[in-house]
Amino acid sequence: MSGVPAPYLRFRQVALVAPALEPVASDLSYILGIEICFRDTAVAKYGLENALWSIGDMFLEIVAPTQAETAAGRYLARSRGHGGYMAIFDCDDPHARGAACAAIGVHTIVDHTHGAYTGVQLHPRDCHAAMIEFNHTAGGDIDHALYAPAGPDWRRHVRNDQTRRIRAIEVETPTPLELAAHWGKIVQRRIEADADGEPALRFTEADIRFVRAPDDSPECIGALALDCVDPDATLARARARGYQPFAGAFHIAGVHVRPVAAR
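Now predict its structure.
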């Protein structure tokens, strides 16, 4: 039917949360050699400010509360400062995907359209580990550069001389296989085993890996693996900004960032 987007699902964006946007945003830009592509002033109505970076064709966002009693602030309190905030998917029909989720007991908490953008956010309590969002930008089925959350000219800010792409996110949970199956039902994607044998949801853009959480740790997006030109140099820049690398990663904005050799 003319005007109906062809079916697609892209793993497009990961949102993290920090108590304050600075100095974290400046530190992240310096350490990873990436450039802020957009700041969305519309999030102010939720008591937030944000910054967004393009990493290849995916996006990394940090949100920070600017007032008391925000959802992001409550998440920080619950997570004790560890855990990513959202996994975000660009798709053909957010409403249809939201309805399919409701049928399996995963409820929608936000469903809105603003101009070219439609977004459906699912309740984090039902998703477990993080909030999941489905969104669509008019024309995005034809041209994936059209992605409203990243602003009108994100491609102008793409840098890949140090960090090339997001290779994977790691969801920490006491029950990796069970949570992978649950997320698989939500995003309508089958579970596969990754190179390490961990259950994973695999996308063209990046993998979502499910790994066993440390004892007594809550379920969360716990880590990002990033393809970097020189992982050792990336960790050295993190150390220069006061982040102490451990086991090949550094902790910033609630997650362990693990630079790995670009392939």
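The first strand starts at residue 9 and ends at 17.
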